[in-house]
Every structure is written in C-alpha cells, then in structure tokens.
Structure prediction request, 1232 residues.
Amino acid sequence: MYRSHTCGELRAAHIGKTVTLAGWVQTVRKFGSSMTFVDLRDRYGITQLLFGEELAKELAENPPGREFVLQVKGIVAERSNKNVHIPTGDIEIKVESFTILNKSITPPFTIQDDTDGGDDLRMRYRYLDLRRSAIKKNLELRYAVNRAARNFLHENNFMDLETPFLIKSTPEGARDFVVPSRMNPGQFYALPQSPQTFKQLLMVSGYDRYYQVVKCFRDEDLRADRQPEFTQIDCEMSFVEQEDILEMFEGMIKYIFKTVKGIHYTEKVERMSWEQAMWDYGNDKPDIRFGMKIANLKTPSSVYPELRSQSLKKPVVSKFLEVSPFPVFDQAETVLAIAVPGCGEYTRKQLDELTEWVKRPQIGMKGLAYIKCNADGTCKSSFDKFYDNEGLKEIADHAGAVSGDLVFILAGYEERTRKAMSELRLEMGKRLGLRKETEFRLLWVLDFPLFEYAEEDNRWVARHHPFTSPKPSDIEVMIGNDPAIEDPARYLEHPYARIKANAYDMVLNGNEIGGGSIRIYQRELQEKMFAALGMSPEEAQHKFGFLLGAFEYGAPPHGGIAFGFDRLCAILGGSESIRDFIAFPKNNSGRDVMLDAPGTIDDKQLQELELRLGLQ
Amino acid sequence: MYRSHTCGELRAAHIGKTVTLAGWVQTVRKFGSSMTFVDLRDRYGITQLLFGEELAKELAENPPGREFVLQVKGIVAERSNKNVHIPTGDIEIKVESFTILNKSITPPFTIQDDTDGGDDLRMRYRYLDLRRSAIKKNLELRYAVNRAARNFLHENNFMDLETPFLIKSTPEGARDFVVPSRMNPGQFYALPQSPQTFKQLLMVSGYDRYYQVVKCFRDEDLRADRQPEFTQIDCEMSFVEQEDILEMFEGMIKYIFKTVKGIHYTEKVERMSWEQAMWDYGNDKPDIRFGMKIANLKTPSSVYPELRSQSLKKPVVSKFLEVSPFPVFDQAETVLAIAVPGCGEYTRKQLDELTEWVKRPQIGMKGLAYIKCNADGTCKSSFDKFYDNEGLKEIADHAGAVSGDLVFILAGYEERTRKAMSELRLEMGKRLGLRKETEFRLLWVLDFPLFEYAEEDNRWVARHHPFTSPKPSDIEVMIGNDPAIEDPARYLEHPYARIKANAYDMVLNGNEIGGGSIRIYQRELQEKMFAALGMSPEEAQHKFGFLLGAFEYGAPPHGGIAFGFDRLCAILGGSESIRDFIAFPKNNSGRDVMLDAPGTIDDKQLQELELRLGLQ
Prediction:
C-alpha cells in the first residue's frame, strides 16, 4: 500500500504519529525559501503538508506541480493556523521524505468547484472534471441512493434478478438500438428499452418481488437532459393491487430521503387524479411545492381530447366567460387564469417582459392579459375597456386572487393554452422563490386514461405501455367492446375513450421520478390490448408470443414501477440536469466526446456481420 | 394485497388464525368424495390446503388443476399427519373459500426438481423452468453472492460507479458487439467487453475504490458454457501493490463463503507461480483439492514456448528418461507421469477403457503407458520388455507412487501431452471422488508471462490485456528494449520473452473465477506496450488517446480484478454449468429460444440506420 492513511482521516489525536499519504497536489504555497505548504487531495479530503528547509533543495530539483501524484512520509503535527472549514484542519504533516509518483501537465481547466472549463472542455476531459468536488459529491449521492434503494428492497424481500441485454426488437413507442448478430447474419438483437416483459415473466415464474438497478436504452432524438442510455430502479411485485404498490414505493422513497438526505418525510404522499392535475396545474406532473392553481374560466371544448373526454364529470370552475365582451376571451376555446401572490405592483416593464416571455416560440401565446388587484380593492387590467371594476373583480375572485395579487390570463386553443399556463405558473413560482431546492414534495398522480387516440392511423395507442391493465371496473368495457373506431370524428364516444389505466406516476417537485402500473395477466385481455393498438393476431404472436404463452400457464396478478434513477439523483442533488450525476454521459448528439464514440468500424467487422453501409 | 401470509410462513403458532394465501397448485389429491388436499406453492414454500365436504360441489364445478393460481381464505389448523420435511409441515389450511385467480393449461414438462423436460424445451419455456426449485435455489444463491460482494466492498470503501454501455469499438483479442448509430450514420458504438479503461479513468479521477456488478459482452464463437453476455464483479483500487489486491479480494471471497455458504475459510489462500502450476498440474488453473502432481520425466524442449522460456530457472524433476530403451519415451519430446493412489489393481478392462479415453480426439494421445505398483514391491507395466523391475520402480518412485498405486505415463509433443496429462489427472480425480462439490480450495496463480508470441504477425500479444503492468523489476527491460523481433526463429531470446506480468488469477476448484493485474499508469510505458502489440503511434492514439491523455494528468498507481460472476455462482452452487445460474440464458448459437432472438428488423429500421444487409 502506498499510504498508511487517507487525506481525510488525520485528526489531532494522530499528532506525533509517522504516516504515509498519497494523493494529488491541489495547491502549492511557498513562504520564503525555506517553507512550502502543499494541500494534498484524495477522495476523502485534503491534508496540509509542510516541507521544511531540509527538503528545500530536493523540492527545488523536483518541484511538485498542481495535480502531480505525490507520496509523502512525515509526522502529524499540530497546525498553528487551524482551518475550521475542513475536518483535517487541526493538523499538518511535517514531511520527512517524498516521492513524485506521477507528474501532470497543466490541466485544461481548474479542478475547482467553480471551474473555468466550459461544457465541451469538461466533457472531453471528463476524467479531470470528475476530480472536482461538486461532481464527486453528485456521484457519492448517486451511490448512496443506489445503496439505500437496494437495502430497502432487500429488507422487503425483493430479489435482484438480472435480465438480458441482447433481446428482440419489438418497437412500440420509442426506437430500439439494435445489435447485428454475426452468428445469425441478417438478424439483430435489440437493447432493452426496459426489462418490462422479463420482469413480468419473472412474476409468472413465481419470483414474487423483483428489482434491478439497470441500464436501459432508447434511440430517441435527444432533447437536453436525455441520454441514449439511462438507469432505472426497476421493480415488480406479485399478488398486489395498486394500493400495495403505492405504499411500498412511497416507503422506499421516504427511506431514501431519510438515509441519503437526513429528511424525515413522515406525511402521507398526496394523491391526485390525472384529471385534477390537468385541470389545476395544466400538466400531469405538478409541482405542488406552491399553490397558484389554474382557474378554468370557460368550458374546454375540442382540442384536448383526453381531458375533454373526462371533463363531463368535472364541474367547470366558471362558465361566466362563455360569452365575453372582450373578443379575445369570447373567441378563445379556453381561458385560464392564475393569481400570482403579492405581485400586484408589477411595473409596466415587468409585465412587458413577461408578455414577451409567453410570446416566445417555446410558449407560443399571442399575448398575456393581467389584472392587478390593488390594496384599495380596485382592479387594473390590460383589458379595462371591456370590463368595469366589478367585472374585473369577479374574474380575479374566480382566479382566487386577494388584494395585492396579480392575475394572469391566457386565452387560446386549449392544449397550447393549458401548457403555456403551466409553464407560466412554474416560471412565476421560480421567480418568487417558491420552488426551493431544499424542499421536497412528493405526489402520486393516478387514474390516467389507458388510451390516446392516434389520428393518423385512426387507432388507439397505449398511453403507458401495452402491458398496463385497465382499472378493474373497466376490464369488462375493454373485453366487451370492439376496439375499432368506426367514425374518426366521433372517437370520443367510443367506450375505449373513457377507460382508465390502473397506473400511477410518482412526481417529485414537478418531475416524474417513477411510473408504473398493475399489469394485464390474462391472455384474453392482453390480446384485446394488442388488437386495440392495431396489431394483427399474427403480429402480436410474432412479437409477444412468449408473453401470451406465459399467461396460459398460471400468471399471477402483478404490478410494478420503474424509477428514473438519473433524474431522481439529480433532483435529490438539487439540480435540474442529469448529466452531472452520470460518470460518463453523452452529449446531445449521443456522442461521448472523451472517447470520440460512436466511430467507424473496420471493413472486416462489417464483413463478418454481413452488413454494408449506406442507403438502399 | 391478495394474501395475508406467504406459503412458507405459517407454523403451529398460527393455529386458529384466519389467513389468506395465494400461489400455484403443486398437487391435488382427493380422498373420497369429501376431502381434497392441495399443495399450494409460492417462492417461499409450500402449504397444504384442505377442502372439506362443504366445498366439494364448488370444487367440482371449478376444479383447480396443476399450476393454477389459487387464492384461498381459511383457518390454520394442526395437521394430523405432520410433514417434518417442510417448515410448514405442522399445519394445514382448512379452506373456507377460494378463488381461481388464473388457470393453467398443462405444462410441457413437470415443474419438479427432476423434470422430464429436455434442455430445448426448458429453454423455450424458461418462465416455467424458473419455477423449479432447483433453478430458484440457484438464482437465490446468485442474489446472495451479489449482495455479499456488494456489502463487503461497501464496508471497504468501494463505490459502485456506473460505466457506459455504448462505447467505442477497439477490438483487442475478442470481437466487439457493435451498435449502429442512427444519429451518426455509418458510425457504430460497441458494447463493452469489460469496463477496463473506464475503471482506470475513474482511478485517474481519484475515485480510489470502484466496483460494479456489470454486464459485459463478447462476440465469440460460443463453446459450451460461454454466453455472449455475462456478468462481472469488476473492481479497481488506487495506491496499491499486488499484495494489497490479493489480501482485499481473498477477503471478499472468504466473506462470500461465510455469508452465502456458511463456510469459514480461515486458512490463507495458497499461491503458486504460473510456472509451477504448468509444471505440476499441466494447466494454469489447477484443482488443488487433490494431489496427483505431474512428474516431468524429461526436459521439455520445443513446443511449449512460454513454459520453455521460463524452464531455464526450474530444475527438471528427472532427466533419467532423456535416453530410454523404450522407443516411445526415447523419441518423445515430453514424458509425464502421475501416480494414481490405490488403483494398482485396475483390471485390463479398466486400463483399456482409460487408454481409449486418452485416444479420443479431444485428448489426442496415441496411447497410455502404466505401471502397477504391487503390494509386494513388484511392478507390472505396459512396457515390461524394456525395463526390469528396478527400472520400473525408479520411474514409479519419480512419479511419487507407493505400493498399491497406479502410475500413468503419457509421452509426445509437449503442449499436447501436458494438456492431456492435466485432463487425465482431473478425470482420475473425478473418478476417485477427490473433486468434492462441497469442498472449496482457493488458489492465487501469479507471475504470468506478460507476452505471448504471435507467429503469424511476428509480434507480441498481451497475455492478459494491454493495460497490465510488467513486474516492477521488468519495467526497465520493457522500456529499455525495442519490442521488434528481428529473427522469428529466435524470439525466445528476445528480452520481452522473459518479462513477467504483475498479474494474478484466482482459481477455485480448478476454475478461474477472477483475474486482474496492477496496471500501467505511465504514458511512456503504455505507449511501449501498444508498440509491442504492433500498434502504430497513430493507431494507439486513435483507439486509446483518451487513456494516454489521462495518464498525463497525474495518474495514480492502481490495479484491479474482475470476477466471473456467473461461473463463481455456478461453482458455489456445485455445478459446472453457468446456464442454470442465469435467469434468461442464450443457447450455444447465441439465441434466446424463448424470445426467438435475434430476429429480423423492419426495413424502416435499416433505412434509419443507413444500413443494408448482405456481403459486399
């Protein structure tokens, strides 16, 4: 061993001991010709080294520079000038001898929390970037979450069972990465988008409680913060209903909070139907750290089909804008409002800037109407000529505003308007400091629609995936009806439009961190599902024959969930970006710029695979 | 939840309780018209159910068959006829009501330890095969080993750090599986053969102690018991020498023995040089559960180059067969012997059978000579006319035989003969019951040659991999000499032929379960290694520029090891085959017969990847 102790280990109690340390030179400070201080860094901490006069000559001949790998032998001594900010701050090492184990040229950026390295440079020299303590903390947190999840699941009788990576391509939804088979020329394996069917087979096999922390692969066009390979905490249980899953995994996340963050999340996790989330927050993963719920000022009509199909049951908050003297409201399909607390004194400039904000192409609105609720009870709006004070006040009341608040109103096509209002709400939450990185609010979103309508093919698509069961009460609706849609214009009247999924998403601070469902376990129902998705019986048999077969030999009721491990870690680490929680991430073009991958391969490799490059 | 208890949980203490169980019907036994016994099975055990007269009608209408999924509610009662073989054998459930949760058609083979299913059938219906308790025990053992390894490594400050699966193809040795990149047409990712370079980069990044239980991929022609995807317990440490690694991982394996098998392996793990292993056992992974060491009766000469290059240092056991009156010995390059204890009375038939055994093409010897050492001190051999009793006794003595032993002698070309003798030794060990499944003997094999000679290219190849360091004393030999081999006929005189690797293999019962090395961490030495392997500086830079670059920024001394997780589990489970320790294995053609993968993919997928099928 090159060391007797680590650089984070020595304390006052070690004073007088002879020790050997090894690590990286963080800083070198000279005091005159006789004394040199070196901060030596390793994974565990930083220890100050003192090189005295007797080593001055040797040091001058072999000066250790930044990031050199240094081994020193010396005596632990009390520091005259203690550093209370680091655990080793009481001591220093009086160096007796040293060896430079390896040299370093000057790094392309500084190895510090606030590095001067840009994103590209950091990614190219990721091995240096990983030395920065900010990134190190992220990966330590990642490991702690991994370990906590495993321990919790182990204690609850779950088994880690490995599923294969070289499987069969059955593209549903996202695109598969494929792997040409040399031994079976012209044939391909696929990399798993998730171990979904395997974990279900394990339930059929009686393994009862399965988990895996597992890499998954999706060949999608990468948005910011998506990776072609990502990690899931993947779980499945037999003989359970939705309630059992919610309780178990609520428990897991709380255990992670406690173990990793020291947070005792004792309150029950809130639950919300998908419908309510859409009505109140404009999206299916609401950030409930703050209120500012959306007021629906008009009955939604045509554009947001799933919501509309459910809207029958939900009383619309207000109908008084069904007809409005203000043509923008009057002609709009949807009019939505939020009351922003305490912003009633926003200036013209602030309002103009926010108007520009909603008009950006990413948001896509034509304008932003507002009502300022003054302290004296009067209102001031951007559409004063159409409403008197009474009328404005009525709208503001409907939006839940009180004195001093600012009401924002967006009007337009329903889907876009709802999305825009959701974004505006989040933006205002951020600006007002209501989305605290250190506050964590969990939420279960439930009762999703099972199907979405695909206009281009005039058929149903699975909102979650084809293995999700309908709610028990909807099974008969599904079995008993023909999935075919006779009149595309009236698809909403098809019984399938109202079927609810036995599915659940876990939302943390406005991010979906996990999702799952109770699965179909009956061959007949699974076949019906495949048929609803437009698969012929032959196609279903070809793609999923193994699963349909398995359902004939005593498949138990089962369900599960998968957590997005990268995202969960990022949120727990107080970051919006998953990149810095992955040791070797890829960029937005799916490239590893450090490795320079992907790259070309030899002709010999192509020949062995019986493949040729280029379009047909 | 569909159950209040599992099928392995109820005991006498539960008598009188009302419980709900769910599981699979293992057997149905009827007693007259009024009583039916059902054994209900789940992952945790088997519980006997008793259906009385009051349920007879209902049962007749809905008879639960084998492998049906059944839910029952009933009262725990004492069994009149206790079963001491199962933990639940004291009780049974007096069923009050039942629900058939799912039906099963008749399985294609019986779900029992000794199944009637052939290999193909079991693989096609793997989800049923996995229900067999033999396979379940294997996977439980696998999980226990996984968990024990993780716990040990965690306690020793190792961190699980995930490395990427979509990397760059740098074929060295085995063939890469490649993954075409849609976003970078004409370019490919490769799946990792191991995370080797990444774990080394993590050491450069200062992560110090890394581990991962990770899938690796090799596109090799599959021998029996090889899988295209396999799992490693992959580890790396910084600031260590060989001794530190041996101690750490000896500790890990012992911890696994203790935790998983209840075996306290307290003795120090034996160590043996590669050379000694080859001399004494004829292979580099000796099974040391039994003796029967090989006696070398003649100086090896030409065929086994690595051994020959080292043979200079090793005194040959005997030279007295350099010249022999028996032409077979006299003309053979190598003559090897083993003394098989207590087999001196083998019959003609037994000896003939063993002679046929060594003549099989897999062994490839021309014949088998023997000496029987009789109790009266006389010898009887298959070459009596060339030696008198004294001469035979001298040979038998050299082989270490005593009265009652049988000496086997093989003669021929060195490499083949040594391999054949190694096989014969193992075969005799097996026949004599000396290779007990329940006995575990660990061994470190050390001091491998760093290079092998590749005749076709007249260059060196890395015996381990290109990142293995030479022994410290050989570094200068490597740096100071030109790797080029001027005269192929005299390659053995090249200084590189004698360089030893700083590498180690862990052997368990004659199987290599792990291997690793201290790594090169200096750019100059790594470049020299690439040059020795015939890579131009440009090629080295193109393939491994990221690693060479990383070595310039302060790379610490480091080393590591990887354990073959599948094999380790198989050996601990007392099996020679890894297949039954993998949930979803592939067959010898690399196919998953359950999924029917690999398979064809859509033209659309090929077009998106800009690939065409067929040879150029």
